[in-house]
Amino acid sequence: MAPWPEAQANSTPWPEAQANSAPLALSRPAAGTPVLTMRAFRCWLTVYRRIWRSSIWSSVLGPVCYLGAMGFGLGSLVDKHGVSSLGGVPYLVFLAPAILASSAMTTGMDQSTFPVFGSVKWNKIYIAAQASPLRPSDVFRGHLLFMVMRITMNVSIFTVVMWAFGATRSAWVVLALPCAVLTGVAFAAPIAAWAVTLRNESSFAILFRFGMMPLMLFSGTFFPLSQLPSWLRPLAYATPLWHGVALCRGLSLGRLDLLGGLGHAAYLSVLAGIGVWGGARTYRRRLYV
């Protein structure tokens, strides 16, 4: 039976409706575009706007207290026994750029562990994003962009503290800031790619206890690697933190070899790239519906 003329007229969209629907379809950004990544990033900015006071003080007081205690307190004892093994510079000058790199590492690890896991299990920010036009890759990149912002904030504050303490020897120290950020991202991206796959948070204790702490102790942070046994040095040279420490220290002292600096930067860039590549895939497997 043929439909009534009225039904046929009602089923045919009016030209005005077609004209009004076209701009809406064209205005929606395609998946994976920077627009969607920035939307995910703004979500984390909204969260941080409510809690920034609790983090800014630790970002300022932490480096001041730590660098003062280690650089001036322990440094006064180290300097009494000679500084030839430190390259002829006071212990404070030797230590400060290494703490800059390790601060970037700890910030990257802090931001890519519990916040990522909690976004799936506790506050469920990632789960809420599934109901939006955001794809898992957009969620990952937006959160990673926020991690980069937090790392940049902390290392910028620490760089100012270094300068205030007189712990720099070269104007090239300004380039240590992006190198420290790269160090932090080299940790944050792969760890975030791994953290989103976890079902419980107990693995983080192992990561911090047997990952972060040994890296801080045996990556040339507090003493030259020449003090380590010869069989242990190759392992230390393979750690990402050592490359970050070498970059920041060389720039702070004005003694960085160009070829060596490019090698350190390439190592960290490859590690960060692997994390970005892996994160896009692990987020899709965990969040795809």
Describe the overall structure.
The protein is mainly α and 289 residues long. It has one domain. Helix content is 75%, strand content 0%. It contains twelve helices and no strands. It has helices spanning 5-11, 15-27, 34-80, 91-112, 114-121, 125-129, 136-164, 176-195, 202-217, 233-237, 240-253, 258-287. It is elongated, with a radius of gyration of 25 Å.
Blueprint (SSEs and pairs):
Blueprint: H1 5-11, H2 15-27, H3 34-80, H4 91-112, H5 114-121, H6 125-129, H7 136-164, H8 176-195, H9 202-217, H10 233-237, H11 240-253, H12 258-287
Structural class call reads mainly alpha
Count of runs of 4 or more consecutive helical residues: 12
Radius of gyration: 25 Å
Tell me the strand percentage band: under 5%
CA-to-CA gap between the ends? 41 Å
Proportion of residues in helical segments = over 70%
**Low-confidence parts lasting 5 or more residues at pLDDT below 50?**
1-28
Largest sheet: none
Multimeric state of these chains? Answer: single chain
Distinctive features:
single chain; elongated; 289 residues; mainly alpha; 0% strand
Task: Put the structure in a nutshell.
This protein has 289 residues and is an all-alpha fold. The chain contains twelve helices and no strands.
